[in-house]
């Protein structure tokens, strides 16, 4: 999984490199990409003829309801058929959905890696939490950091959660390092301060495909390091949309839908 | 009594005998109009611009009012005489200095209401922090009334409202900035008491004293410990158990008016402790905060669910990790309305609080933010209280400095209450006569009262720096301060002297339910109010209008005769008949007598809240050790300006008249004061 993550993350880094100057520009590009890719996948994995036929049927039943509204029997029968054809229409979407779910999953995770969180501002505080494997002694864990980060507290050991936490303060902008040592084994977690654009990786995790899929920003923690994960409590990033501060998923949804509708004609896709 | 009467006449003469609006002003107004027609050169206009009036010039004038609660005239003068307070001295020497005669009674809500409306308490209807409900004899808030939705539909355990609930200001009279805003004069008003909810007049306003916490109280903090404290007003203690280094508790929020029975909402609080490192992690909703022992958190927003997925109320609070080991002690400030999403109208226009919070970060919104209850109840010690109050001051100063920097015309009125609260609770450290004084206190905290004056001087310096030649600056306090050595329990005295008949004489028994009203002539509610049990006004009144006059005379005589058995001193130096001292009266609301305690005495809180005590007089060993809710002549406030003052004795309604006159507005009939400039 680590190799797949590295490849996909590298690809997204490459694609988004020209848009580092603006989160909106990057998100619009990802939305365009989403609309175009998903339409293409839909076109080649769905029953285009079946969809067209079903849509025609639905329109004809709607006309039936309108034209024969004085005839209760006809209207009821048309409505039943409407319901049936709607289900059939949804059925046509199931196969392409199965094909789309994997790329969409990677796309969402990669987008969230870039627009879901914002780096710490200088002076801002965050919690670093190290979750340890079973049986690891909580007293054997220590944390040090590069000069741009100040570790403000002594370790907070929580035996019930098998976790050790610290509060850190961002001091200088840049890509900083947290060095975690568990029983003499040391590994690093990146922490970003005051940099706009780029990836903000909340957690570095060990083993487990699902955990690695969700946290592709950094390579997995070595298995023998004794830690399951290291997380930094970055603040959520928000984007301004018509005066509202919203999570990136809402503009992404709206813009990719808009691109989807705009491109379905040129790409000759029945949806 | 006779001395009081002549005194009161003198007080009223201040308003009656003041010079009429000068004809010179009218003449200059005409000149101003000519100036607008460009018939005068700009230099000439500027030189006499303060007295000119035209709509354009009204809008271009600048009036900066720095309201500082509780600055005492005598302490200020004493410090200035020592060569301290350079900015206040500069104002005195280049402009004017006067002594402020406060309201009867000299309580902040009443005094600031007079300062902003130009009315006395009889006119604006605020006599105390609390009034009494004439129907039930219970205490009620004097400043605001909250009405639940008029119509609701019961659906299971829910009450679906068909209309919104209402918060209504009980203050009568118009704030002077509302009159200015109506004329298009830009106004910005911060934290001035007796202004909640603020009216939507066009003036930018952030409400102050009077704004409740999210629970609807004047401020109820929470204290979690495995060594709980005793009960105390304004302090909710939670006895908790530390199990495997984890504490589970709940933080209470507002009552849920959308559910039957109005249950209290709450959120879960998880605290993870490391006794070795002396740090703890507090988990509340989706937020986690790590604190070291004796460390404060920033503001933490907390959402209280009224209807799941439909309605939440957001509050903010700060956590203070007092102790991790050997005992667990966690203090949480009163949960206050979030300025970014306030559930009540704490600002006008509605978005003003959010605008301030977006620029300066979240800030306290509670009217009385300095948590003197936590200090009094032992949840915070002196240093911890000072830190908490300092955090509030920092926030207020941040917004003050920004408002000063942006102030370019119209009115800016900024209020600071830190000075009042710190004098209340640290008087004991600077007065060796005080029963709570200790030499150690004197050494460590003896300078805090005077520090309040030094802080005020700094603020005045900042205001002076922001003032140009076209700015009129007024620094004003609502009252002064005096020691509070002894507590007097009015209801106990009334009961012992046959005025109040109690069925239940146990300590703390409420008079509302414990009194025999069919045999009761008078009762006390509030720090200075005495009410007759008047037939036709009180629901179970027995005193007729014919008996009223003679009963009041007897009460006044008896009250003046009260002597402290320990010292032989009189407890009261002024007993005011409200019929005589107020220009107007709201008959259903106004107490019959306002008791002016002699310096050193004040009402005990139990009596003020309508409760019975066994003793009439008691030493005050509390931290709340200085006060001003006494005879107003014993607690003069101050006024300073960068312009010469017309007189040295100033009443609070004079400030209203001055503010209106500065912008060329005529004094309305309901404004008692006269311009002092």
Descriptive overview:
The complex is a heterodimer of chains A (271) and B (677). Chain A is elongated. Chain A starts with a helix and ends in a 7-residue tail after the last helix. Chain A has helices at 2-16, 23-45, 48-67, 72-115, 209-214, 249-264; strands spanning 125-132, 141-145, 149-151, 156-158, 163-170, 174-182, 185-193, 203-205, 227-232, 239-241, 244-246. Chain A folds into two domains: 2-116 and 244-264, no CATH class; 125-232, Sandwich (Immunoglobulin-like), CATH 2.60.40. The longest helix of chain A is centred in the middle third of the chain and has 44 residues, at 72-115. The relative contact order of chain A is 0.17. Chain A has six helices and eleven strands. Chain B is an alpha+beta fold and 677 residues long. Helices cover 30% and strands 25% of the residues of chain B. In chain B, the strands form nine sheets. Chain B has a nine-stranded mixed sheet with strand order 23-10-9-24-1-25-34-2-35, sandwiched between helices. A five-stranded mixed sheet of chain B has the order 12-11-21-20-17. Residues 1-52 of chain B have low confidence and may be disordered. Chains A and B meet through strand 4 and strand 5 of A and strand 15 and strand 16 of B.
